[in-house]
Each structure stands twice: as C-alpha cells, then as structure tokens.
Amino acid sequence: MSPKLLHVEFKRALDEFELDVNQTFALAGITAIFGPSGSGKSSLLRVISGFEKAVGRVVFDGDVWLDTEQRIDVPPHIRPVGFMFQTPQLFTHLDVEQNLKYAADRAPENATSVTLSDVVSAFDLQDFGSRNVSSLSGGERQRVALARTLLSRPKLLLLDEPLSALDAERKGEIMPYLEQMTNTFGVPALFVTHSVDEVIRLADQMIIMRQGTVKESGKTSDLLERFDISGLTDPFDGSVVVEAHVIHQDRHYHLTHLTIDGQKVSVPSTHPVKSGTVLRLRIRARDVALARERPALSSVQNVLSGTLSELQSDTNSAYADALIDLGTVRLRSKVTRKSVDDLKLKKGDSVFALIKSVSLEV
Amino acid sequence: MLGPIALTILLALTTTVALLLIGTPLAWWLANTRSRLKPIIEAVTALPLVLPPTVLGFYLLVFLSPTSPIGSFWVSLTGTTLTFSFLGLLIASILYSLPFTVQPLQATFESIGKAPLEAAASLRASPIDAFFSVAVPLSARGFLTASVLTFAHTVGEFGVVLMVGGNIPGKTQVISIAVYEHVETLQYSQAHLLSAGLLVFSFVVLLIAYGSNRRYSVRVA
Hints:
The complex is a heterodimer.
Chain A: E1 4-13, E2 18-27, E3 30-34, H1 41-49, E4 55-60, E5 63-67, E6 72-73, E7 81-84, H2 96-106, H3 116-122, H4 138-151, E8 156-160, H5 168-183, E9 189-193, H6 196-202, E10 205-210, E11 213-219, H7 220-225, E12 239-250, E13 255-260, E14 263-268, E15 278-284, E16 288-291, E17 302-313, E18 319-325, E19 330-336, H8 337-342, E20 350-355, E21 359-361
Parallel strand pairs in A: 3-9, 3-10, 7-8, 8-9
Antiparallel strand pairs in A: 1-2, 1-4, 4-5, 5-6, 10-11, 12-13, 12-15, 13-14, 15-21, 16-20, 17-18, 17-20, 18-19
Chain B: H1 4-32, H2 38-50, H3 53-64, H4 69-78, H5 86-112, H6 115-122, H7 127-138, H8 140-155, H9 159-165, H10 175-184, H11 188-213
Helix pairs in contact in B: 1-5, 1-8, 2-5, 3-9, 5-8, 5-9, 6-7, 8-11, 10-11
C-alpha cells in the first residue's frame, strides 16, 4: 500500500492553548496520534473530518477538503472519511443489519468496493443480523461500528480512541479487527490514543502531540527509543520494544527463555508458545539498572552486556537517560545522576543492563 | 354544518399537523443554533404559556380584523373575513399551542445531541437525510408527546377561540364554547354530556400517550 499524503495546516483556539498544526503526513497502515489528554488530538481529527470548523487547509491525496483562502470547505458527509467515535454510536432504532445497510446504501461506488458480506465475514457478524443493538456487549457494538464504518467505503479512517470505553479483555478482542481494517481493506487510519500499549500494538507510525502542536512524527519504534520524547509522554516515561526469539519454555518455573540479539533473557510465561516464535517485549527505562560488572549473585536474572551509546543528564531532575546498544537492539535506562557519577559512566563504556521486569506485548 | 365535537376534532387535528410542520424546523433551529437571537425566539415562543388568552385573542382580533392590513387583504382575496371563521380559529390555535409543540421537540432534539448526527454524516448522510433517517426516529417519543399535548391543548382552549371566533354554531362553536353556552342558558344536561365526554376523551388520550412512551423509549448506544 503506497502512502497517501495528508496535509493539515490550521490554527484554532482551544480552551487553554492554541491548536496549531502545519504538517504533511504520509499515511500507510495505522498512524497513532499520541499525547496526554487535552493535547488537541481529538480536535485535530475533528478538523480533518470537518466536524469542527477551522481556518486553514486540509488536503488528502490531492483532494482539497478545506482551504479557507479559496473558500473551500467540503461538508463532513462529502469527505470520504470514516470516523470512529469513543462510543460506537450505533443507531438504536435500527437492528445490526439495518445499521450496516445504512452505511452500504449511502456508500459511493468505487473500484475497491467493500460489500456487506465482506464485512460480515471479516468481523464475524454472521449471527448478529436482526439483533437489537442494545443487546450487544460493548466490544460487539464496537465491532459492528467498525464494520459499518468500513462499509461506507472511506479513503481515510479517523479513529478517536475507539478502545477507550472498553475493558482490557474487550480491547484484546477488538485489536485484531482494527489491524485487519487497514491490512485487508487497505484503508489508512489515524488513530488517536493516550495508551502507549495501543501505539506499540497497532501503529507503525506515530505522531506525538503536546499542547496543541505536533512535537514529533515518524516510525513508532524510532520515536519510542528517542530521548526527547520522554518528557512528552509522561504516562510511560520511556520504554523500548524489542523483538525476542523463543528458545524454550520452562514448565517447572513457568518461565519462557528467549534471546535478544543473541543474549539470553527469561520472562514469566503467560501462554504456551513454540520455540522460534518471535515475541515483542516492552522494557521500560525505569526497569533497567546499570552495572559496571556482571553481578555475581542477584535476584535480577536478566543481565545483558552492551555499550553505553548515549547519556543525557537532566540537571533539573535527579535522573539521567541512557541508551545501551546491544548490537542491533538498544535499551533505554533511567538512572539517577548520582549513580552516573558514582559509577563514572560515560559514552562508549561497556556496561551491564539489569532488567528488573519485562512485559510481554501480545 | 359541523357540530361542536366534529369541529373541535377538525380544529385540533389541523392545528397539530400545521404545528408539526412549523414547529419542527423551529425546534430544530433552537436546539442547534448558537445565535444570539435564540433567547429572544425562545421567549416569544413561550409567550402563549403566560399571557392571558384574552390578551392573545385581543391582538389577533386587531391584526386579523377586516380593517387591518392583513384582514383587509384577505377579504379582497377571498371575499371572507379571517375573524369569526374557521381559518381565523386555526391561526389563533397555532399561535396559542406553539409552545406545546416546540418545547417537547426542542428538548428531545437537545437530548439526542450531535453524536448520532455526526455518525450519520460520517456514513455519507446529508444533513437532511440524517435528520429524517436518524433524528426523527430517535425523537419518536418527543414527536408523540408534542402531538398529544398540542392536540389536547387545542381541544381545551377557550378564551382565544371566543375572542377570535366568537360563537357561531357550525363555524366556530367548539366544545368548550358550546359547554359555556349550555351553562349560560341553563341546559345542564347537555353541558354535562359534553363536559364528561371531553373529560374522558382527554384522559384516554393522555393515558395512551404516557402508556406508549415506554415502548418508544429511545437510547443511544
């Protein structure tokens, strides 16, 4: 899928600050718009969709949706946008099938036409047909809403925290469908979230917003590794996602042994996996300690050797950020400035990274 | 020539239909506008609730009488007067019952909120399409309440009707005025018949409205 260009350029006063965006995004797959609550993420989506008025320009794939100077402001129902709200917004006066048909009946004719039977099988809605929408669970409703949105044959999906109203289990149910929307149906999506887990799981690219402006945009893995976003992304204060290969699972201790860049780590087993499977591990900077020498006796099992490739001290705080190069993979570590001085750490040193805990990304 | 009962029902029905046509767009505008005119229009709409019917009737009489510009224009056009005619009664009833249509509808439209309409817009429904395919069905309860209240209120009006329409049997003599006349002429048995009939009818209509409201209950997922 070749990337579609979305140019967004506008200013708009919000309650506490000004939303000021001037950016061109190359959209392919899912692009996360990430930032703390109230940073203007939802307003950005609403301006792109046309639900909120703004002064500026919005151009998608060569089509001008908004150009205040040329007095162009395409109304929301004409913009080929599929919008997913925080709540499913199914029409309660219609049953599931009628909700889907509502979208299908109004969808434009185009070459890559998604049909009712396509979405029914893709979203496993075979048994839903005449069910009343109020009889569905939250996750099921959101699934129907996703299917309905796709049936309107959008060229761009705008997802405004569609998982935020769901509990962890329901989120897990919906995520595969979200991935499928962009993979199977080839529609690029902008996905607003303040959950770093959702970013890691779903988005190849991300946009980081803060106080109404775009601070960073780029590949998710690159951005999550960078230093200067730690202050922007306070909910998780820095972590990396690394790929690890499963060697085997230890039934006795309930541990899964893996390798990262050829070095062994073990994590608590959550579910059975086969040898050779690649798992994604999220390692938070604050869970990584540094040592000059491999500790002889320690409860920390995961000790990886590497090179200190970056070191930044924040003199306004107690902490310093470090990057440890393991070969192809880099870990982040948050240590106190005092320990940096005590250990006389400097860039290029060989160090051991002690990983206190690792969380498995599904 | 229509008796008071048939005339009352005809007047209430035509008033209800006319008010749904006029009141729906007005209520929709009031529910969605950010205009500074909104409170002024809301106050004007609510005036019939607080004004004595005689005041409203007096001004209608002044504006519709054959000596007024509107009244004389109507006479030159049709050869009949607006006052003391069924049409005059209809105009008076529309103004008098306006808040009973507009207020329930406005409340319903406001309770639906923007979200279902934005959902409809994102599914390519034009604003008019979205209004009829989403807003109206979701407002079914509000429409029912507005219709019943308007109908019942028109059936129950007296002062405005008397001022504008007078008491012309077959033309402007509705039930409430017929009751008044029966009482004035000491025909208590006829007064009883009409009064009890109106009482039972009103009760049944309201009972149906309140009873069916539960089945029309609307929630937005």
